[in-house]
Design a protein that fits this description.
By secondary structure, this protein is mainly alpha-helical. The protein contains 14 helices and four strands. It has a two-stranded antiparallel sheet. The longest helix has 28 residues. The protein is globular, with a radius of gyration of 20 Å. It starts with 9 loop residues before the first strand and ends in a 13-residue tail after the last helix.
Length: 321
């Protein structure tokens, strides 16, 4: 019996590529424009602790949606939870303005399947794009991994990497409402500002700082998972790729930038293994488990951890294989 052809990792369709490129460029430039507007507006309407507090609160909420919801719960099935909490985390992550959850997760699973190879959609060490002049090569690769791939890479095959999500009617419905959830992520800080100050100025300032400024900052910080944390940091585990544990980036990605540990144990709910490795998302999952809202929480055994450890002399050369 003839074997079936292997499905393509990416779909090479000009129409799909153009649509993806338009969405990616909007994702790139609209938060930048909103951030510039917030900077200009601050000359006439000064900001203070309220605006920064609202922006920080939205950042924490949405980053938990991304890291606990999209990443650990759905992409890697690191734990199980109630249907309503799964939907809440999904909707919260959509407020990040990083596109629909199904495509986000398909892209991430593709990254794990082909990490730091030319089929990886966002590797800083292996890119399918034509190389730039040598002087700019390192920066070019970092930008490609960070955000450039979103409007230059071919469309990931969602049917190959996320068929389980395509069969989930609730998550499909939330994805179709993606624009509405992004808009809600703007309206919530505006409503908080209006309630706190009883003025349109407060609503306007909190809209800008809890909306586009927060989205811009969130993009640039969260995307360090793909760029900085695959180029700089510590490698403790044999993962056959260039993933690193970058403890600094892990602070603002809520643990996600502990990429070497994550690639070694992708289905683990917890990534911190040393005192200086801060894993806020792992702490949130522990809290959910203590409250009975998370179960079947997965983590590696001591034997599995020991089996993946690199020999000390291999640390320097691992990732350049």
């Amino acid at each position: 019996m003839a074997s079936l052809p292997t499905p393509r990792v990416a779909i090479h369709s000009e129409a799909l590529f153009r649509a993806k490129r338009r969405a990616a460029l909007l994702t790139l430039w609209l938060p930048i424009a909103g951030t510039l507007l917030a900077g200009v507006s601050a000359f006439w309407l000064p900001i203070g602790g309220l605006e920064l507090g609202v922006a920080l609160g939205m950042f924490v909420w949405v980053t938990l949606g991304l890291e606990v919801g999209f990443h650990r719960l759905v992409a890697h099935k690191a734990f199980e939870t109630h249907r309503w909490l799964r939907a809440t985390l999904w909707a919260s992550a959509l407020m990040a303005g990083q596109g629909g959850g199904t495509y986000w997760i398909a892209q991430h699973r593709r990254h794990h399947s082909h990490s730091d190879t030319p089929l990886d959609p966002h590797s800083p060490v292996a890119t399918p794009l034509a190389p730039p002049p040598r002087r700019w090569a390192a920066l070019h690769r970092l930008w490609h991994a960070h955000q450039g791939h979103t409007y230059r890479d071919a469309t990931t095959n969602v049917m190959l990497f996320a068929p389980d999500l395509l069969r989930d009617p609730l998550l499909k419905r939330l994805d179709r409402q993606h624009a509405a959830w992004v808009a809600l992520g703007l309206l919530i800080p505006a409503a908080m500002g209006a309630a706190a100050t009883q003025s349109w100025q407060g609503a306007w300032n909190c809209l800008l700082w809890g909306g586009p400024v927060r989205i811009f900052v969130q993009h640039q910080l969260f995307f360090t998972n793909s760029s900085i944390a695959h180029a700089f940091g510590e490698q403790r585990f044999d993962t056959r790729d260039n993933s690193r544990n970058n403890w600094l980036c892990a602070l603002w990605t809520f643990g996600s930038a502990l990429q070497n540990t994550h690639h070694a144990f992708a289905s683990s709910a917890y990534l911190s293994q040393r005192w200086y490795e801060i894993d806020i998302a792992g702490g949130a999952i522990r809290l959910l488990a203590a409250l009975g809202l998370a179960w079947d929480v997965r983590q590696p055994s001591p034997e599995q951890i020991a089996g993946k450890l690199l020999a000390p002399q291999a640390h320097e050369h691992h990732g350049h294989r």
